[in-house]
């Protein structure tokens, strides 16, 4: 089914709309614990697994088992909605679990996690200490930075996995050396809690964002602030205060900035946004968004359950997936009491680094879907 959508009330664009489950392939992966939702999701860099951080601080790792391709006969173990992944467990039934001592309750916690590019180590926090896990053994290597203030986001340095950027609830940004167990630099510039971090290897910079829609570009040489900008809606009006997340395009020069009011693509070398898409009166707020692996698409989720696919260059809307297409009709049997299927929407989304182009979203109730 196709619909006609208007963008900025002038340009008419053909948009594909997906309503029926038969129009796409969906796989539901369940944590196995009711009333514990998935807070964050990332694919492994190899493209063979999905890591989920649950709201109780527990991490779950699913992997696709090696199988023979029917077409070429080659071994294939990449993420796919055609086969169920296997939940990885150690012989001792050990799970990677965050230290929650000192963590606030309710919605004040900002869970965060980051994976090394060789898939060997995971850095994570869920309101308590930051923990470093060995992904092969699930063992906790070290924990540090007890709250307060709580850690709100983490990013690995693009050249050195021993160095991480750590965003804090008190608006400070710390550059931490894990091997030396030392804060090397403390960056001051934000006034609200840090909500997004992204490194660019090509430009040797760090981009940070906060809950006031402020974005700061830092040089990794000396950690000096290069420029600071605020997200604005068309006409120069400041965006509403909202947690803002940033992610670099695969070219490492452009980055995506997302909050509940808009999507914006920036050139990291200059302060003006290249393209912008603003939530209109007829649209629900954005809950999360991410680039596709090749940067050609932006996947964006909304609190009404809609998933929209935008052109990664100009943010032109290309496709809309309605919740009726991916939420199974019998989902209510698996939901907590007093929660209806109309209340389900994705709160986290991940795109694989491989060119198979699947996406995975974690909803505000416990099941996880894989499209």
Write the layout of secondary structure elements.
Elements: E1 2-7, E2 11-18, E3 27-29, E4 38-43, E5 49-54, E6 59-63, E7 67-68, E8 75-76, E9 86-87, E10 112-115, E11 121-125, E12 130-134, E13 140-144, E14 151-156, E15 163-168, E16 173-177, E17 182-187, E18 194-200, E19 205-210, E20 214-219, E21 225-230, E22 245-248, E23 254-259, E24 262-267, E25 273-278, E26 286-291, E27 297-302, E28 307-311, E29 317-321, H1 323-326, E30 346-351, E31 359-363, E32 368-370
Parallel strand pairs: 2-29
Antiparallel strand pairs: 1-2, 3-32, 4-5, 5-6, 6-9, 7-8, 10-11, 11-12, 12-13, 14-15, 15-16, 16-17, 18-19, 19-20, 20-21, 22-23, 23-24, 24-25, 26-27, 27-28, 28-29, 30-31, 31-32
Biggest β-sheet: count, sense, barrel? 6 strands, mixed
Termini separation: 19 Å
Uncertain spans, ≥5 residues at pLDDT below 50? 1-12, 70-75
Structural class, from helix and strand content? mainly beta
How many E-type strands? Answer: 32
Principal-axis shape equals globular
Protein name: Protein TOPLESS
Organism: Melia azedarach
Q: What does this entry look like structurally?
A:
A hairpin with a 7-residue loop joins strand 30 and strand 31 (about 360-365). The strands form eight sheets. The protein has a six-stranded mixed beta sheet. Helices cover about 0% and strands about 45% of the residues. The chain has one helix and 32 strands. The protein is an all-beta fold and about 375 residues long. The protein is globular, with a radius of gyration of 20 Å. It has one helix at about 325, and strands at about 1-5, 10-20, 25-30, 40-45, 50-55, 60-65, 65-70, 75, 85, 110-115, 120-125, 130-135, 140-145, 150-155, 165-170, 175, 180-185, 195-200, 205-210, 215-220, 225-230, 245-250, 255-260, 260-265, 275-280, 285-290, 295-300, 305-310, 315-320, 345-350, 360-365, 370.
């Amino acid at each position: 089914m196709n619909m006609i959508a208007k963008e900025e009330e002038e340009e008419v664009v053909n948009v594909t709309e997906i309503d029926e489950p038969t129009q796409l392939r969906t796989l539901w992966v369940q944590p196995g614990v009711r009333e514990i939702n998935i807070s964050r999701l990332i694919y492994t860099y190899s493209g063979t697994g999905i890591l989920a951080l649950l709201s109780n601080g527990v991490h779950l790792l699913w992997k696709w088992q090696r199988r023979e391709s029917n077409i070429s006969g080659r071994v294939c173990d990449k993420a796919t909605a055609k086969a169920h992944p296997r939940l990885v467990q150690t012989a001792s039934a050990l799970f990677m679990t965050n230290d929650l001592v000192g963590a606030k309750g309710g919605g004040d916690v900002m869970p965060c996690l980051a994976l090394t590019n060789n898939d060997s180590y995971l850095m994570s926090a869920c309101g308590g200490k930051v923990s470093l896990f060995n992904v092969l053994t699930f063992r906790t290597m070290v924990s540090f930075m007890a709250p307060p203030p709580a850690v709100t986001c983490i990013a690995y340095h693009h050249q050195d996995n021993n160095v991480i950027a750590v965003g804090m609830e008190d608006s400070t940004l710390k550059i931490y050396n894990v091997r030396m167990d030392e804060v090397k630099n403390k960056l001051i510039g934000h006034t609200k809690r840090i909500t997004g971090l992204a490194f660019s290897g090509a430009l040797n910079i760090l981009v940070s964002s906060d809950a006031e829609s402020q974005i700061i570009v830092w040089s990794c040489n000396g950690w000096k602030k290069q420029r600071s900008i605020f997200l604005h809606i068309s006409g120069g009006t400041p965006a509403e205060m909202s947690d803002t997340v940033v992610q670099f395009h695969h070219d490492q020069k452009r980055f995506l900035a997302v909050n509940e009011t808009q999507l914006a693509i920036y050139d990291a070398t200059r302060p003006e946004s290249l393209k912008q898409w603003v939530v209109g009166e007829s649209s629900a707020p954005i809950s999360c968004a991410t680039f596709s692996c090749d940067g050609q698409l932006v996947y964006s989720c909304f609190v009404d359950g809609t998933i929209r696919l935008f052109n990664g260059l100009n943010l032109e809307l290309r496709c809309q997936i309605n919740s009726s297409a991916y939420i199974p009709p019998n989902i209510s049997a698996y939901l907590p009491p007093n929660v209806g299927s109309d209340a389900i929407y994705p709160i986290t989304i991940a795109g694989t680094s491989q060119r198979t182009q699947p996406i995975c979203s974690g909803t505000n109730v416990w099941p996880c879907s894989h499209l």
